[in-house]
Amino acid sequence: MSKILIPLADGVEDIETIAIYDILSRTDAELTLASIMPSNRITTLRNLVIEAPYRIEECLNTTWNLIALPGGKEGAECMHNSEPLMELIRAQIESSRWLGAICTAPVIVLGRHQLITNFKATCYKAFRSELSQYVREVSDQRVVVDRNLVTSQSPGTAIEFALALVTCLFGEERTHSIAHTMNVLLPGK
E strands of the chain, at which residues? Predict the structure, then answer.
């Protein structure tokens, strides 16, 4: 069974967080929501309160098939400063396991730690010039998959991003099935 970690921090973008969780929960993966804050209770950018069942420190001894990072500037900055989370992300990259980041997370969490210098990526439009300092190539695509890294632009691309994560872990047939049940048109279909 695939194990997926979704780290949560105060200020994460609501739509991105919920889309990632909702769509990946439609697979047979084991999803873990983990707070990187001092408390298990986090408050999203739009003041939704989420009680994470786990703390990030409890996730350190698990091998994750995917770590999916929601954006939101404040949330991404908290993630950037979380040493336990950064330890998990470094291990994910070093072992070529899947890593997803949307909106500001590709820049603030991954780029500023110089973790994606050899990747093609995208991010929230206002951060693209900064992203260009940290990656091999900045893309205008809504969702970019480069080897084991999946990046996406904004809340408006959150469903496409989450479906791309499903494709990476479970294949296109599973993605089409989930998209069909949600009445989502896939790009190019």
Answer: 3-8, 30-35, 41-43, 49-51, 54-55, 66-69, 98-102, 120-121, 137-138, 143-146, 149-152
- 84 token code pair: 């336990």
Q: How far apart are CA 19 and CA 40, in angstroms?
A: 20
Report the C-alpha gap between 70 and 20 in whole angstroms. 8
pLDDT in tens, 96-117: 999 999 999 999 999 999 999 9
pLDDT > 90? residue 30:
yes
Beta-sheet pairing, 66-69 with 54-55: unpaired
Residues whose CB is less than 8 angstroms from the CB of residue 181 and which lie 6 or more positions away in sequence, other chains included: 26
Q: Quick check: 20 and 6 in contact, CB under 8 A?
A: yes
Rounded to whole angstroms, the Cα distance separating 3 from 105 reads 21
- Which residue in 153, 151, 133, 145 sits closest to 172, CA to CA? 145
Using DSSP bridges, classify how beta strands 66-69 and 3-8 pair: parallel, antiparallel or unpaired.
Answer: parallel
